[in-house]
Amino acid sequence: MATLELQNIAKNFGDTAVLQALDLKLASGEMLVIVGASGCGKSTLLRLVAGLETPSGGKILLDGVDITAADPAKRDIAMVFQNYALYPHMSVAQNMGYALKLRGLSKTDITAKVEQAAEMLGLTPLLGRRPGALSGGQRQRVAMGRAIVRQPKLFLFDEPLSNLDAKLRVSMRAEIRRLQKSLRVTAMYVTHDQTEAMTMADRLIVMNAGKAEQIGTPMEVFARPATLFVAQFLGAPAMNTLLPLKAGLTDAPEGAMLGIRPEDILVGETGLAMAIDLVEPLGSETLIHGRLACGQSLTLRRAGGPPEGSQIFVSLPDQKRHYFDAATGARL
Amino acid sequence: MKSRNWFAHTVLVIGVLLFILPVWVMVAGATQDAGAITRGDLSLIPNPAGLGIFWQALCFGGASKAGYPVWHMLLVSFAMAMVIAIGKIFISLLSAFAVVFFRFPLRKLAFWTIFLTLMLPVEVRIIPSFAVVSQLGLVNNLGGLTLPLIASATATLLFRQVFAALPDELVEAARLDGAGPLQFLWDIVLPVCRANLAALFVILFVYGWNQYLWPLLVASSPAYTTIVLGITQMISPEQMTPWNLVMATTTLALIPPVLVVIVLNRAFVRGLTEVDK
Amino acid sequence: MDRRTIFPGKLLPILLIAPQLTLTFIFFLWPAARALQEAVTATDPFGTSTVFVGLDNFTALFSDPSYWSAVIRTLIFCATVSVLAMAGGLTLAYFAAQNIKGQSWYRVLLIWPYAVAPALSAIVWVFLADPQIGLIGRHLGPGWDYALNGNQAMALVIIASAWKQVSYNFIFYLAALMAIPKTLIEAATLDGARGFTRFAGIIWPLLMPTTLFLLVVNLVYAAFDTFGTIYALTGGGPAGATETLVVKVYEDGFIGNDIGGSAAQSVALMVLVIALVTLQFRLTAKRAA
To answer: How far is B166 from chain A (nearest CA, A)?
Structure first.
């Protein structure tokens, strides 16, 4: 498996900087997830690595070799597309074997590799079928099989689960992660879904408007978000933000926004008074939406059923507080 | 709503009959006696004894001005239609592929030049086209019959539209798999566009087979008379026209193109009306 | 027009487009240039000398009343054929689009006339309409003879031309009708629209792009492709009653040997086609979008 290094990679379309200069290093066997909203530049980054776009500046090194100018076909990189991109007129077996056929492998070799990959993904009974006769989840697996069969240096995933229904998404993301780990492949995975990002990444990179806001392991990025954007992007429901002075909290730094996650807020006998607007029972936990005396809204999450009454007292533990510069959003 | 269906069926059956009637008259008439027809006794009921007329028409050609048997003319028409259909599909495909999947200098100019040919159907440029063809020595041969009809842009435009609509991901996946452009064209584009290819074949075969004005000019020699031309030459106001023979020959002339349309009718309709994949 | 994903390389595409460009130059642009050249020169009857006459051929053409009567004749012919063929196609398509048994059979049985050669369409109608032998024609009494009566000749070529073209319109209208989402029709029915009101208010506007597209195609067909039908049926007669512009080009150029005049007519026709086809291209682009 290979290492990937991006040095000062940037992409402009005309005057707009779609991707600002970025440095990145992937270790062999690492799964890096690139997460962000639509238009943040995550797909562009992936396509630059694949060679489907040319960078406006910077270098890409795969296993130490400069591939910046190399043709996509020559990079030994495989990609799993959002819409699967299966050849509609070929059977599953032919789809999976196409790249090998182009490389000139013998028929027996191709069949052997295809069958091996099919076995791994549970596709063996489907080998003779056409993509049109498959369900979304099956097509997704064929797309992965096509990539696996090539045994490439690097795997790229472009939002592969976006077109699947919620339940399938949950089971498929576990499958993808397990597969990636067992094959020990180096991979880059793009998604807009923060749950996928958290559960699948060895490290993740949060992008916003072409800029990388933070890179780190999921727990690092979750526990110590570098910017307000990152803080609110990860975690559901999103982190609460308050103007501390308005709420009556005087120990905050100058010009700061206070952030606290819904699950970190404590309910007790004393503290800030909060009037309850809406209660959403989820079964094992409950979401409580309300308003503080100063008018700022707050959402909290706590185990068990809904509280009695229309008012509760909440406290915000010191060690769970995050402070961000109100103007720049950077962590203080 | 049953009554609605009944009305729909009636209208459609009337339509079908309106189309079939003239042709039925022709087929039935072919089996009847020429003299009887001239006298005005043409009937809708075919004469089973007269079925041999088709074979006779095929082999002997009767009073055709060409002096060539009908099967010869059918062959000329067939050659012309096939060369036009296959030739046009071939060059249009390559041109559309070049214009859509590459960037090269003067690309847009080349495309508009080809598009310009749409503005010039053969009927608009017959006299000068004939002059050019004679100058090139292509009168009375297959090249002269077909080449001026091959280069027009209709097929190129259809292919262009279809190629431009192919999903980007399909192209990207093929590139990553290691396919070069021609490989991509052969392995992926052509199979995916099968219906369009079939539809164009139908359109072009029919177009080539049905040509009248151009062969009228270019095929002055009997050896190169197409069947459509030959039939019109069979009808003369001076001498007695062997109507049964004319009808039989016309029937024979209609069979190949109609057969092509009927056999490929599904792909024909799909390829004509569906351009997004 | 431009797609995002392309292949690298500049030589290959040039090689791929070369055959068509070559044929285009030799058989389209060269003759067109010749036509332009001939349109502005006059040749003496023996073909031995030519002289540049500027726009004289055009002036002569546009002041020739027989040219204008051909223009009007062609307009009437094109409009009538188009309307008949489109109305016929739409009617059949409307009923074929409804969910009835045997739909695919009807479709095949209504499409095949597309394959009939325009010239043969004429022959086929002779068997029906000829005053002596025609199945119907011989019963129409002594007043029916399209070899003598110009209006009858015109009517016959219109019918023979429209008859064949109905299939083409049927194909496109059927596809367009089947593409209308059922939910839209259902919503309209719930709103109280039925039958003709529903057709006029909901379906007809939705068919407008197809109608405009087909209108141009039909006009071009009627103006040019019908040469075979007209020439084989009436030869442009009687006394030029069915001589449309395209027939006139042939007659004047090839039979009459008026090279300059015929070339001027060709150039005029080119201008007309350019206008029509540009219109069609714009409409097709909207239809696909």
So the answer is: 11
Cis-peptide into C238, omega within 30 deg: yes
Q: Are B95 and B114 in contact (CB under 8 A)?
A: yes
Q: Is B176 in Cβ contact with A72 (below 8 Å)?
A: yes
Domain parsing of chain A, residue ranges: 4-231, 240-325
- Would you call B176 and A89 a contact, using CB atoms and an 8 Å cutoff? no
Question: Is the minimum CB–CB distance between B221 and chain A shorter than 8 Å?
Answer: no
Joined together, the tokens standing for residue A58 give 């910077």
Give per-residue pLDDT as tens, C75-129.
999 999 999 999 999 999 988 888 677 788 888 899 999 999 988 888 888 888 8
CA–CA dist C62, C2 (Å, integer): 43
Distance, in Å, from the CA atom of C56 to the CA atom of C78, rounded to the nearest integer, reads: 29
CB atoms within 10 A of CB A54: 10
Asked if A302 and A285 touch (Cβ cutoff 8 Å), the reply is yes
Contact flag C17-B95 (C-beta cutoff 8 Å): yes
- Is 50 exceeded by the pLDDT of residue B265? yes
pLDDT tens-digit map of C186-228: 888 888 777 778 788 888 988 988 898 889 889 988 988 898 8
Q: Cβ B104–C14 below 8 Å, yes or no?
A: yes
Asked if B175 reaches chain A (Cβ–Cβ under 8 Å), the answer is yes
Q: Which residues of B touch A74 (CB under 8 A)?
A: 178
For A331, list phi and psi in degrees, rounded to 5.
-70, 140
- Would you say residue A264 has pLDDT above 50? yes
Q: d(Cα B250, Cα B228) in Å, to the nearest integer?
A: 8
Instruction: Give the pTM.
Output: 0.83
- Bridge partners, A227 (sequence order): A330
Nearest to C23 by CA among B185, B102, B136, B82: B136
Q: How far is B34 from chain A (nearest CA, A)?
A: 54
Alpha carbons C218 and C276: distance in angstroms, whole number:
11
> C79 CB contacts (<8 Å, ≥6 apart)?
none
> Nearest C-alpha of chain B: how many angstroms from A78?
7
Cβ contacts below 8 Å, chain B against chain C, sum to 294
Cα distances (angstroms) measured from residue A293 to each of A60, A244, C252: 54, 13, 97
CATH number of the domain located at residue range(s) A240-325 in this protein: 2.40.50.140
Neighbours of chain B (3+ CB pairs under 8 A): A, C
Topology of domain A4-231, CATH: Rossmann fold (3.40.50)
- Compute φ and ψ for A79, nearest 5 degrees: -130, 140
* Domain total in chain B: 1
Q: Which of A52, A84, A98 sits opposite B177 (nearest CB)?
A: A98
Determine the Cα–Cα distance for residues B151 and B134; give it in Å rounded to an integer: 18
CATH number at residue B164: 1.10.3720.10
CB distance B173–A79 less than 8 Å? yes
With contacts defined as CB-CB under 8 Å, which chain B residues touch A151? Answer: none
